[in-house]
């Protein structure tokens, strides 16, 4: 997903962004889907099996066993298509993707110890390419000053890069924007140290 050179460029972008702030920036890119779409595939398959045979039943005389058999065939066929092909992933509701993304971002934020920075100024950028989703989690000292809306530009930068098949550039732009926000609200202090690694995590 990211070449060694792109890893190095993103790490350099993090170092540059952190040079003007007491904040700490980390990037996580997920290579696996956040939401397993089997449940939603089965849900849509069941709905199709209930609805699709009825127009045929209204046009032609079908005995109950034949109708039930037709519904079962519809369910099996639609379920197989929606579970075992990429088509099913597109049927996962947006709210489910966003909730899974937010949960994953908070979990990684805590797992990486970003809540343990000296000034509580850690910011995590999580990218879920399968869901075309970006989440930003900021620690309490930053969140209290910035809120949610300030990070829209960060998310937009990542998505813009991904749309052009330049995730590395999108991340670099997002990191630069996060650095500007952090520099304004948490400027560099004398004696600041780099508390967290700068490398991007791909998992």
Automatic annotation (TrEMBL):
Membrane-spanning segments: 34-56, 68-92
Highest taxon of the source? Answer: Bacteria
| Residues annotated as domain TPM | 101-179
For this UniProt record, the keywords arranged alphabetically read as follows: Membrane, Transmembrane, Transmembrane helix
Q: Which residues form the signal peptide?
A: none
The protein's matches in PANTHER family, at most eight in alphabetical order, are given as: BLL7265 PROTEIN, UPF0603 PROTEIN YGCG
Q: What is this protein called?
A: Putative membrane protein
The organism is: Ancylobacter tetraedralis
